[in-house]
Amino acid sequence: LLSLLYSADTVEDEMEMATVRHRPEALELLEAQSKFTKKELQILYRGFKNECPSGVVNEETFKEIYSQFFPQGDSTTYAHFLFNAFDTDHNGSVSFEDFVMGLSILLRGTVQEKLNWAFNLYDINKDGYITKEEMLDIMKAIYDMMGKCTYPVLKEDAPRQHVETFFQ
């Protein structure tokens, strides 16, 4: 069933990683639950496994990977919020399944699914409400991540101004 995903592994790799590797759910199940084809899932898995050979990614590794996309700024805080949104079972790691289900919503979900996902991202304390403070934390994290792409152009209190405008 998963032989296509694991065909590149040697027997030695299998024995070495047997105790620490997370095995993804069957492709057919992920295909049924997500909006990706089996071929797309195989490609995603190869990339995921290349970056995270154990089959799961912890928050520090997630932050390191994410920072490569935003070298001009500090993506640490935003990556923390994003990691928590992908870590749906709140176990401190993102499995391939977590990753696929998040991407499935972000890339191919309905408007409602995307709104729910974004709400979950912004609702930092998971109490069912987005407070002004939570939105400000996310906005600051976005501005920090964008770094010099935003700060020379915008005033330092721009994140707060955006949040105030939204809450009017």
Offer a concise description of the structure.
With 168 residues, the chain is mainly alpha-helical. Helices cover 60% and strands 4% of the residues. It comes from Nicator chloris.
Question: What secondary-structure arrangement, pairings included, does this model have?
Answer:
Layout: H1 3-6, H2 11-17, H3 27-33, H4 38-51, E1 56-58, H5 59-67, H6 76-86, E2 93-95, H7 96-108, H8 111-122, H9 132-146, H10 158-166
Antiparallel strand pairs: 1-2
Helix pairs in contact: 5-6, 6-8, 6-9, 9-10
Question: Mind explaining what this structure looks like?
Answer:
It is a peripheral membrane protein. This protein is mainly α. It has a domain at 24-129: Recoverin, domain 1 (Orthogonal Bundle). The chain contains ten helices and two strands. A two-stranded antiparallel sheet has the order 1-2. The longest helix has 15 residues, at 132-146. It is globular, with a radius of gyration of 18 Å. Mean pLDDT is 84; it is low at 1-20.
CATH homologous superfamily of the domain at 24-129, by name?
Answer: EF-hand
Radius of gyration (Å):
18 Å
* CATH class group of the domain at 24-129: Mainly Alpha
Mean pLDDT: 84
Q: What fold name goes in the CATH topology slot of the domain at 24-129?
A: Recoverin, domain 1
Within the largest sheet, what's the order of strands?
1-2
End-to-end CA span? 54 Å
**Largest sheet: number of strands, sense, barrel closure:** 2 strands, antiparallel
Share in β-strands: under 5%
How many β-strand stretches?
A: 2
Content-based structural category: mainly alpha
Give the count of helical stretches.
Answer: 10
Percent range of helical residues? 55-70%
Going by CATH, the architecture of the domain at 24-129 would be Orthogonal Bundle
Give unreliable regions as ranges: 1-20
Family: Belongs to the recoverin family.
GO molecular function: calcium ion binding; potassium channel activity; potassium channel regulator activity
GO biological process, one term: regulation of potassium ion transmembrane transport
Protein name: Kv channel-interacting protein 4
